[in-house]
Amino acid sequence: SAQTKSEYELSTLTTWLLKEEQAGHLDSELATVISSIALACKQIASLVTRSGISNLTGAAGAANFSGEDQKKLDVISNEVFANALRASGRTGIIASEEEDLPVSVEETYSGNYVVVFDPLDGSSNIDAGISVGSIFGVYAPSEECDVNDMENPEKMMENCVINVCQPGSSLLAAGYCLYSSSTVLMLSIGKGLFGFTYDSMVGEFIMSHPNLQVPETGKIYAFNEGNYQGWEPKLREYMDGLKDAEKWGGKPYSARYIGSLVGDFHRTLLYGGIYGYPGDNANPNGKLRLLYECAPMSYLVEQGGGKGSTGRERVLDVCPEKVHQRVPLFIGSKKEVENVEAYLAQA
Ligand code: AHG
Ligand code: MN
Ligand code: MN
Ligand code: MN
Questions:
Q1: Boundaries of each Fructose-1-6-bisphosphatase class I N-terminal domain copy (predicted)?
Q2: N or C: the chain end with fewer CB closer than 10 Å?
Q3: What is the pLDDT confidence band of residue 7, given thresholds at 50, 70 and 90?
Q4: CA–centroid distance, residue 193 to ligand 4 (Å)
Q5: 27 CA to middle of ligand 2, Å?
């Protein structure tokens, strides 16, 4: 008889991964890596929620490679991610915002996946209890070199950097977890964009956003306008245009900016609009890192029919030269990103 869906049948991340495996969309080793990432996100969600009462707020007392003062939770979230990936036994190399260099994972015995991640995104918000997130991307080991060729430390480090510096177009999977009024894991394995909301009663991520499509337009923009004076003229002209009510039938665009890429991006995916972190005269490549912020988010937005651009080229086409390389980012609804690209093309 036709399989009638029992009212008690839960569609969870675990059951979805199994179905995707059965459909041949991903192999069991990649599913294991994704499950280990989901575990890390559950742990971080718990730490973030009680950070104020477990002495987990405040600075760690050191800076990361990008020159940012690390929060205690930046460092702890980094360890949580690294431990979960090590324990998966399928991860060969990891690269993190909070690690100066890529790390080769000895415990791997199969799969050898390369995982890049921002363990805690928007961490400047953590002490104020404002939404934060984690961002991740998964690559196959690079064919360019033998990831097990560990003849000497220099060669090993060179291998690790080659393995990690792959263009976003080579991603096998990417996602983020939003730690906010609800904990939502957004994920793609290249066959559409799926969202899972965490139910702490059962300890599972429950499917909540199947096949999410980004609205083609949206009258919300998320830029840090504090940097407006440093933007190139054509970008200032674009931004002025969004505020011109007459141009938009009497109602200008709305500004929404919380200073956490994961939170601002998640709203952009669901409601439409555009998130931008442009370059300015002080930082021509902007602030966001290509490898573990711009590329995974651009992979996700394209899976939902949106666009991710540096303003002059598709983010997924940019091959990183350096692990912590920054690029300008304009991402969200297709028409909104094309609009800002049209202005910048006139520059
Ligand atoms: P992170 O906390 O991982 O370093 O990322 C912070 C990023 C991003 O989350 C956010 O959109 C942006 O920094 C905010 O930068 P400004 O404070 O300069 O607006
Ligand atoms: Mn940071
Ligand atoms: Mn970040
Ligand atoms: Mn971070």
A1: 12-210
A2: N
A3: confident
A4: 23
A5: 32
